[in-house]
Each structure stands twice: as structure tokens, then as C-alpha cells.
Amino acid sequence: AKNGGKNQYRFYSNHMKIEINESILVEAELREALNHQELSIHYQPLYDAGTSTLRGFEALMRWNSTKLGHVFPDKFIPVLEQTGLIIPYGEWVFREACLENKRYQVKTGARTIMSINISPIQFKDIHFIKNITSILQEVDLAPEFVEIEITESILIDQFDSIVEKLKELRALGVRIALDDFGTGFSSLSYLRKLPIDTLKIDKSFIDDILIEHHPRMIIASIVSMAHEMKLEVVAEGVETKEQVQYLTKHNCDTLQGYYFAKPQLFELLEEKLGV
Ligand code: C2E
Ligand code: CA
Ligand code: CA
Ligand code: CA
């Protein structure tokens, strides 16, 4: 038994070493990525469930590394966060996404909303509000056309000061969405205290629709509760017609997913939209 313990220890320490080496490599490559234009932003459209009108876009960061190949956000965003690089890179995404939305609005006259994911590290940065205010001015985009997506993880500590900051952002006119709803420590009591505009139901619930005997009431009750709180409900990860029909029938406001379009370069998306 003692021996087994030793082996197990060795296994874990080797495993950890690999993980650490990997993240050092990822970090080193990431520091160069922006200079070498290895990072890009893909955009996915969101549609009104009832009318199929384009509601706007979500900006999603992409990294195609010359050394590491295509790296998924789930792998490199945590490294950006650990190293603080998420602050300049996040600001870059924010500016680029606002610019694309402004250009799109000028070109088409549509009142599209750009949704941008904000890491807790960015959100808690003392310059965050000042920075986005100046970017919005610089780009000349009205704040109502920007939606900041935050996750429940942001609320774990300093709940009151986070709420204050959300209020400040909303006073500015920026929209706030709670992303990945249902995956965290979701409690309806705290939801009522949050100054937000939109609830994005996590993909795992949307996947459940396809299961034959799925707990069908879950989506219906999230939607009715959210509507009672005057929140817009977005379903993400919609992949099939059956899901579209189900979500539309249950009064979901907005739909997003591969069924409509995969995230892609803005140029290509525009082409697809016939713009
Ligand atoms: P998220 O914000 O929940 O984004 C939705 C994810 O679902 C995206 O993955 C998107 O490509 C994927 N998706 C959309 N529709 C479908 C579908 O129909 N089926 C399936 N299977 N997937 C779908 P992605 O692009 O890999 O991003 C993963 C996560 O990385 C995001 O999750 C977000 O938390 C984070 N992320 C991405 N870009 C940024 C960024 O610029 N800043 C920050 N802070 N986080 C980002
Ligand atoms: Ca998101
Ligand atoms: Ca999400
Ligand atoms: Ca997610």
C-alpha cells in the first residue's frame, strides 16, 4: 500500500509538471501573439426567436498559434487571466468588437447589439469603466449597443461592490448579461438583486431539450421567472430545429447557436448575411 502511495505521488507530480510546462509555453507564445497577429476575433449572430430578426453578435477570441496550432479559448483565456494579459487583450477585443458593430450599423442602418465577454479580472480592474467609456467615445458607438457578458463566478466575493459597479455601468447605458446561467451557484434570491438586462441560459440546458424525457419544466420556469424580472432570455448553443421550435414555444426571446451560424470572421459573416 505504501508503494502504491509513492507511485501515485510520482504520477501526480509528473502530471503537474507537464501542466506547468504547458502553461509556461502557452504564456510565452501568448506574449508574442498579438504582435504577430495570431489572435483574431470571431463573431456569432444572435436572432430574435419570434421574428428571426438579427439582434446582434457575440465576439469570441481566437488564437491560431504558429507554434501550437489552433488553441481553444478554454485553454488560453485562463493563461491570459493568470498573467494579467487579459487586461490589454480584453481591451483590444472590446475596441475591435465596438468598431465592427459601428461599421455594421453605418452600413446597414440596423440597431445591432455587440455582446462582449468580460473576465472577472478585467471587470475588477479599477480602470475598467473609464477605459470602456473612452473606447465608446472614440468609436462613437452608443452604449446601448454594447452588452457586457459576465458569469456568476464574478459574484463569489465582494458581492456588494460588484453590484455597485454593475449599477455604474448601467447608468452609463451599457447592457449587462449574466452568461452561463444555471451552471454556478445560481440562486433566485441573488438574481433579484442583480442590475442586469439579459439572462443567457447555459448550453447544457439547451442540450437537454433533445433528451426524450428531459425535465421540460426547467426552461419554462427560467423563462417565466426571468420575464417576471423584466429580463431578456437568450438561449445559447442552439443546434437543431427541434430546439428552435421548443425555445420559441416557451417564449425564449433570443437564440444563438450553430443552427444559425458558427462564430466566424466578421467579413465572412457579413457575406453570409448578404451585407
Ligand atoms: P461562452 O461565452 O459561453 O461562449 C459560447 C461558446 O459556445 C463559444 O465557445 C461558442 O463558439 C460556442 N458555441 C456557440 N454556439 C454553439 C453551438 O451551437 N454548439 C456548440 N457546441 N458550441 C457553440 P468558444 O468560442 O470556444 O469560447 C469558449 C469560452 O471562452 C466562452 O464561452 C467564453 O467564456 C470564453 N471567451 C471567448 N472569447 C472571450 C473573450 O474575448 N474574453 C473572455 N473573457 N472570454 C472569452
Ligand atoms: Ca458569452
Ligand atoms: Ca455562455
Ligand atoms: Ca461557456
Can you describe this structure?
The protein has 275 residues and is of the alpha/beta class. 49% of the residues lie in helices and 19% in strands. The protein is built from eleven helices and nine strands. The protein has helices at 2-33, 73-83, 86-108, 120-124, 128-139, 159-172, 188-191, 203-208, 217-228, 241-249, 266-273; strands at 39-48, 54-65, 69-71, 113-117, 146-151, 175-181, 198-201, 232-235, 254-255. It has an eight-stranded mixed barrel with strand order 1-2-4-5-6-7-8-9, surrounded by four helices. The longest helix has 32 residues, at 2-33. The termini are far apart. Residues 1-11 have low confidence and may be disordered. This is EAL domain-containing protein. Residues 23-275 form the EAL domain. It comes from Paenalkalicoccus suaedae.
Class by SSE composition: alpha/beta
Strand order of the largest sheet: 1-2-4-5-6-7-8-9
* Cα shape: globular
Overall pLDDT metric:
90
List low-confidence stretches: 1-11
Instruction: Note the main sheet.
Output: 8 strands, mixed, barrel
**Total number of beta strands:** 9
- Which quaternary structure do these chains form? single chain
**What string gives the helices and strands in order?**
HEEEHHEHHEHEHEHHEHEH
Terminus-to-terminus distance: 68 Å
**Portion of residues in helices?**
40-55%
Strand content: 15-25%
**Any idea what the radius of gyration is?**
20 Å
Tally of alpha and pi helices = 11
Bound molecules: ligand C2E, calcium ion
Organism: Paenalkalicoccus suaedae
Protein name: EAL domain-containing protein
